[in-house]
Design a protein that fits this description.
single chain; alpha+beta; BirA Bifunctional Protein, domain 2; 2 domains; 9-stranded mixed sheet; 3-stranded antiparallel sheet; 12 helices; globular
Length: 339
Amino acid sequence: MPTKKWILPEGIEDILPEQAYWLELKRREVIETFLSYGYGLVIPPLIEYHDSLLSNASEDLDLQTFKLIDQETGKQLGLRADITSQISRIYSTYSSPGEINRYCYFDHVVRANSRQSKGSRIPIHAGAELIGNSEIKNDAEIVNLILDIVKIFSKNKIYLDLGHVGIFKKLISFSNLSKDDEKNIKELIKSKSSSEIKKYMNSLDVDETLKSCICNFPKMHGPIENISKDSDNFKNFNLDIDDDVKYMKDLCNLIDSKHNDVEIKYDFCELPGFDYEKGILLSVYIENDSHEVAIGGQYNFDEDNLTGIGFSVDVRYLLETQDLSEKLVNNSGKWILKT
């Protein structure tokens, strides 16, 4: 019997030998897959100066970041809540202007609260970033890679939801709403509560046609072949939205050519947890699970309009859902592999 039972903070947990062994096996396989696509492994520091960690990042990311004071310099430090911003810093520091580069990672992040982390405040993320080019073939490369990585962790059927935050942003730009109103509308859309969205929109002074479009967002999901018909009214506000929809359809065709076992749908209610994303959004689910196991998308993180696309897989969440076929068991004080 343990001599003393220590209690960890809520959302903070150990990974014991049974799961740690499985995690290490998967980590090796994931990194080999990243390398096969041409992505270089990086290990950014867990802690950085606050201003560099959150340079041009979102308010949402700032709220999830633990802050502390460096006792040597007196400057404010931050524990990373997301690795994408660090990849952007690495690219800006070590790459030439306009250069295309690919990076990958497999590491912890730390969250100030568990709201976006499925209960854990120290998620383990495996992810990749392609920076410096926004051609559709590169977007397809990232989507194919995210699906290959999820398949390493699960043999269940996989579902891919495609969203586009640019469509939401272009629509909302036609209203003169406050940032708080925009944020509340985004949260209501993500919840897909038609009645709550309608109630909230009716309380605002907004063009009736725009109000109708926003209220219809919870219905804007389904088979990709329906996307043009379902989004036809959006063109009344911005013809660029038609190009966005076509881009999503073309991207799906490229993905389907490699992963025809994955069910692809569009969902305009898929909006980002951190608001630096600017275009295509990705959410991956596995069969019999309502939580996304991976997210990603395009982003713009730089005053020079630097464009990237990337994703992160929530490895810790997948770890909790695994039925381990081989694991370590404790036998008289020795850990032995059991299959």
